[in-house]
Specification:
Layout: H1 4-38, H2 48-52, H3 79-92, H4 94-98, H5 118-121, H6 132-135, E1 138-140, E2 145-147, H7 149-159, H8 171-183, H9 210-220, H10 222-225, E3 232-233, E4 240-242, H11 260-270, H12 284-294, H13 329-334, H14 338-343, H15 345-350
Antiparallel strand pairs: 1-2, 3-4
Length: 351
Amino acid sequence: METPSDSVARLSRLVRILLLLTSALVLVVVVVVLTQLYGPASPPPLAPVAEANEGPPPSGSYHRPATAAPDTATLPHTAAGRQIRYGRDLIAHTARYLGPQGSVAHLTNGMNCQNCHLDAGTKGFANNYLAVAATYPKLRARSGTMVTTQMRVNDCLERSLNGRPLADSSREMRAIVAYINWLGHDIPKGKKVYGTGFTKLAYLPRAADPVIGKAVFAAKCQSCHGPHGEGKQLADGREYQYPPLWGKHSYNDGAGLYRVTNLARYVKAAMPFGAAFDHPQLTDAQAWDVAAFVNSQPRPHLNTPRDWPDISKKPVDHPFGPYTDSFSERQHKYGPYQPIEDAHPQLAKAK
């Protein structure tokens, strides 16, 4: 039976325990308050709006001009000269000849080749055509076959312009090839010149983020391409001043620009309108993220069962399996890409 002295002792122990717990709680609260007031600041979370509004990076990343294209004013007033001029016009105003209201045929979605190959294929690091004549025909891993200039043109018509091919013997195909060959007539066979292809762009240490890219698009791109990526047509409605970036009138998912690395490198060197590879307007991260956003939007699908017959040669960012590795389709599409490239050193050499 508990005596009064036992009860007092037990109560005293409980009081001491409560006092210790209260002291510990007070100490924790004091530490938290002092840390918030005087401790090191925690890094802010990744903020889409903040990244979207970052200013342009310093210009002058490259210290030499892209190789200049020949001047069309030097073309002779001959049948050959007229053919080359017609080829240039087909590149610059494809929809007027081959679009939904085309004067020659109705083959394409209303975009112009020039919408992706800026300045009729002559702007540096903006899908420049200058090296085509010197490097085609060539073996392409995507088809696993030797590809001619005519086949490459039709690839663009069927993929980037979501249309149908031209016959090799058609007046239009012969004119386009004549123009492309004329652009590169001074470049030795097998050589590339500075300014062709895409600019170099370091991989992000993280995946490209469509959520951040949406904010970048709103801040940097939608004034030309529209809030829904619908583009802006000229007053006559026959071609686009600024092309649609997604939707039924844009490039399909078989196009080269549907690969996030290609689109990121393209927009870094050429977008928004007025940017150039040596005077960029986007940071590297903005270019990656906006490319991820644009290529996460709906667009036409193209069945490509013959693409990449050797799947070991698929680029690290090809968004459709199967693959020879265990990385997911999502990582192949958005990254991070360096772990994939590390697993495929032969692809790094082929870039």
